[in-house]
Design brief:
This protein is of the alpha+beta class. 35% of the residues lie in helices and 21% in strands. The protein contains 15 helices and 17 strands. It starts with a helix and ends with a helix. The structure holds zinc ion.
Length: 447
C-alpha cells in the first residue's frame, strides 16, 4: 500500500511546512487554522467524523474520531502539533518554508518537530477510515495548536475543556523512535521510547536597591549590581546529582560499554566523564541527572545617571521526576545564598515532571510493530529534558509516550541538532515508516 500513502504524506507535509504556522509566543502568532483547513480537506471523506475547536480565533485544533464498538476496549489518541518555532533563512541551505523535496528528503521548519508525525498520523487515520476500519477500541487523531508556547490554545485547552472529545487512556505524540548513535554492547538499533519528561519551574525574581545619583556611587545599594552577582551565582551553581529510576533504566537498556555504564550510574563519577563526551551527549547526561538552573533574562535600571533601584531576573529551572516545588526553591535559595534576602519571588510556575510506566499493553504493541518494520530494533525507555504536550494527558491519568519512527539513516545526534535548528529535513523513508507504524499499531492495539 505504501507508495500511495508515502506520496500523500510527502505532499501533505510540504503543504504544512509552506503554511508557515510560526508560533513566536504571542497569542496572535501561530495561525494554525491554516493547518486545520488543509487537514480538514484531506480528512473529509464519508465515514470520517471531524470536528474543530478553538479557544482563540485563528488557533484551531482538529479532532478525527473512529468510534470503537466496545466501550470497555482501550482508546488510543495520536496527537501532533501543527505550529513550528521561528526560522530565519540565513544559515539554511534551503528556504525554511519552501517544503522542497530534494534527494528523498523534505526540507523545512517542522520537518522533524513535528509536522512529520502530525502528517503521518493524519495519513494513517485517513487510510483507516477509507478501509472502513471498525475497531473495538476508539481511535482519535488530534492536531493541536500552540505546543511551541505552552499549549494554552492547544493541548491544555483540549484536555481541560473538551475531554469528551479527546479523552483517552493511551496517547502517542512526539518524539522518539530515533536511532541512538551512542556506543552499545547490545548490537542492533536502540530506539528511544520517551516515557517521561522533566518539569518546568520558571521563576521571576525582583531585586530591590536604593536610588541615588550615579555620580556618587560610594556604598551604593545598586539593584543591577546585586542582580549581576545573583545571576553569576545561579549560573555557576552545581545542584546535587540525583540519578532517577528512569535514568537508571535507560542506562541499563542502552547496554553501554562497562566503563560508561559505571560512570553513568555513580553520582560521584558521572560529572567526571562529561568532558570526554561529545558536547550534545554531555548536555543530555548533565540535564538528565539533576535539576538545572539557567538564568536567561535580566533587566533593570532606569537611566545612566541614576543608581538602579530595581532589577528583574528570569530563571529557567527544569525539574526531575518526583521533585516538589518547595524542594527546588530550596536549591535556588542555596544557589543565591546571602542575597536571598534581597530578592522577591514575583512568579514561579508549577509544572511538575510527568512520567508513564515503560511496561504497558501499548508498549508491547509498539515494540512488536516496530520490529515488524525494523527487525533489529529494541525499545529503550527514555526521559526527555524538554517539555511536550504529553504532560497534559499524563496528568489526566493516560499512559503517554513520545514515539514515531525515523529512518535508521538518521542518528540521534543529527536529529537533535535539527530540532529548532538549521537545515531541518526528513527522509521520505521516515514518513513511510511512521505511516505504517500508526496503521499497524491502531489495527493491533484496538482490535
Ligand atoms: Zn514539537
Amino acid at each position: 500500500m505504501t507508495d500511495v500513502a508515502t506520496g500523500e504524506a510527502t505532499e501533505l507535509l510540504q503543504q504544512l511546512i509552506r503554511n508557515q504556522c510560526v508560533n513566536d509566543g504571542t497569542p496572535e502568532s501561530g495561525n494554525e487554522d491554516r493547518q486545520v483547513a488543509v487537514l480538514r480537506s484531506y480528512l473529509d471523506l464519508p465515514g470520517a467524523e471531524v470536528q474543530t475547536y478553538s479557544k482563540r480565533e485563528g488557533r484551531g485544533n482538529l479532532v478525527l474520531r473512529i468510534e470503537g464498538t466496545d466501550r470497555t476496549a482501550p482508546t488510543l489518541l495520536l496527537m501532533g502539533h501543527t505550529d513550528v518555532v521561528p526560522a530565519s533563512a540565513s544559515g539554511w541551505q534551503r528556504d525554511p518554508f519552501g517544503g522542497e523535496l530534494v534527494a528523498g528528503e523534505v526540507w523545512g521548519r517542522g520537518a522533524v518537530d513535528m509536522l512529520n508525525l502530525t502528517t503521518t498520523m493524519a495519513v494513517a487515520a485517513q487510510r483507516l477510515v477509507r478501509d472502513g476500519f471498525r475497531p473495538r477500541g476508539t481511535l482519535i487523531y488530534l492536531a493541536v495548536a500552540d505546543e511551541e508556547n505552552q499549549g494554552i490554545y492547544g493541548a491544555e485547552f483540549m484536555t481541560q475543556q473538551h475531554w469528551d472529545a479527546v479523552g483517552a487512556g493511551y496517547v502517542v505524540s512526539e518524539n522518539g523512535g530515533v536511532r541512538s548513535d551512542l556506543p552499545t554492547t547490545a548490537g542492533g538499533l536502540n530506539l528511544n521510547l520517551t516515557v517521561a519528561e522533566k518539569g518546568t519551574q520558571w521563576v521571576k525574581l525582583r531585586v530591590v536597591g536604593t536610588p541615588g545619583h550615579g555620580s556618587a556611587p560610594y556604598a551604593a545599594d545598586n539593584a543591577v549590581a546585586k542582580a549581576a552577582r545573583i545571576v553569576s551565582r545561579v549560573a555557576s551553581y552545581e545542584p546535587p546529582v540525583r540519578l532517577h529510576e528512569i535514568w537508571r533504566r535507560y542506562v541499563t537498556a542502552m547496554a553501554f560499554p562497562a566503563e560508561l555504564e559505571e560512570a553513568f550510574t555513580d553520582p560521584a563519577r558521572i560529572d567526571s566523564v562529561l568532558p570526554t563526551l561529545p558536547l550534545g551527549l554531555a548536555k543530555l547526561v548533565h540535564a538528565s541527572s539533576r535539576n538545572t538552573f539557567s538564568p536567561n533574562v535580566v533587566s533593570g535600571g532606569t537611566k545612566v545617571n541614576v543608581i538602579a533601584d530595581e532589577a528583574h531576573i528570569e530563571i529557567d529551572i527544569r525539574t526531575l521526576p518526583d521533585e516538589t516545588r518547595d524542594a527546588v526553591r530550596g536549591l535556588l535559595q542555596d544557589a543565591i545564598g546571602d542575597h536571598w534576602s534581597d530578592v522577591e519571588l514575583l512568579y514561579e510556575s508549577d509544572n511538575v515532571s510527568t512520567a508513564s510506566p515503560f511496561e504497558s499493553p501499548l508498549k508491547d504493541v509498539l515494540d512488536r510493530v516496530t520490529r515488524s518494520l525494523l527487525p533489529e530494533a529494541r525499545l529503550v525507555p527514555a526521559l526527555t529534558v524538554g517539555a511536550t504536550d504529553n504532560r497534559f494527558f499524563r496528568r489526566k491519568g493516560a499512559v503517554a509516550y513520545g514515539y514515531g519512527l525515523m529512518s535508521p539513516e538518521l542518528p540521534m545526534s543529527q536529529f537533535r541538532s535539527m530540532f529548532h535548528g538549521r537545515d531541518e529535513r526528513v527522509h521520505v523513508e521516515s514518513l513511510r515508516l511512521s505511516t505504517e507504524l500508526w496503521v499497524r499499531t491502531a489495527r493491533e492495539f484496538l482490535a
